[in-house]
Known about the structure:
Layout: H1 3-11, H2 26-40, H3 45-59, H4 68-77, E1 81-83, E2 99-101, H5 103-118, E3 129-146, H6 158-169, E4 182-190, E5 192-199, H7 212-229, E6 234-240, E7 244-247, H8 264-276, E8 282-289, E9 295-297, E10 303-305, H9 312-327, E11 332-336, H10 341-354, E12 357-360, H11 366-377
Parallel strand pairs: 5-6, 5-8, 8-11, 11-12
Antiparallel strand pairs: 1-2, 3-4, 6-7, 9-10
Helix pairs in contact: 2-3, 2-5, 5-7, 7-11, 8-9, 9-10
Amino acid sequence: xxxxxxxxxxxxxxxxxxxxxxxxxxxxxxxxxxxxxxxxxxxxxxxxxxxxxxxxxxxxxxxxxxxxxxxxxxxxxxxxxxxxxxxxxxxxxxxxxxxxxxxxxxxxxxxxxxxxxxxxxxxxxxxxxxxxxxxxxxxxxxxxxxxxxxxxxxxxxxxxxxxxxxxxxxxxxxxxxxxxxxxxxxxxxxxxxxxxxxxxxxxxxxxxxxxxxxxxxxxxxxxxxxxxxxxxxxxxxxxxxxxxxxxxxxxxxxxxxxxxxxxxxxxxxxxxxxxxxxxxxxxxxxxxxxxxxxxxxxxxxxxxxxxxxxxxxxxxxxxxxxxxxxxxxxxxxxxxxxxxxxxxxxxxxxxxxxxxxxxxxxxxxxxxxxxxxxxxxxxxxx
Length: 382
């Protein structure tokens, strides 16, 4: 091998260089921390700023060139926060001149939660899940058949149709008739309707453990995940304490626990009521809770509460709702985020009644488990 050939071969090899990490701006570095703090403070910007000041004393987050005031100014310039002009403008505002979150920052919090739990996810253009059923859908499965009245023309296989026209009519009299048309089969796209139930009873922040923040992050991430990957699916979020009520996606960052007991029955009733109005075949309920049911509302409107052990009347009503959901073909998946023996005993009976699923998960694994189960449940039940 001559020198020229050796030189050529050398040039075709791999060249290794020292990795230079991508430079992150001062704003982006602080912004990630700030988004995390906002979730912990339930959207209270001023409290998040106070936390940033304390963290700065410990970890030198800010510099002489880039201060907390500079960061606040950047948030306003980029449209993430604004000063409240009217009380109606803000979700948490109580007076004029207070900083409030904009819709842009609310969306950024959902995206941040998704990135934390599920990693970077690229948006999918179609975003439906496949079933084994053939029907009207978006994904071609490679099988051809003759055109039938009512078929979508976008599914027509022009190559095969022209071949038919050539065979049936010849080159000299080439014309395309209805009998020549060939269409490609498409996979039916099933849709899923989900209700996510979040326990906001007082125990979600008791015992020195913040359980509501991970639950909020999972909810925000799941909404963002569905909107990106499965935009034809629907998700509704409800919270339950003494009572149950739906909350809007934009209000998730502001969610707080209250001095409540756990009225699982009210949550299930509302969840099933929401799903009854959905036209999708596939329906499911995800329930995040850390405690056994301890409250029901009596026909008189009064609340019956009992936090000691498993109350037969309360548990009995819960099991009735589980059976009712089963009849409606609505599986319930319970995510237990606490090692409560009473909770485990209740969930075993509850899951057996509904024929659903239950997972005992730590807070750190909650997001991954919910996402994994959501994907598995998207196979259409026939």
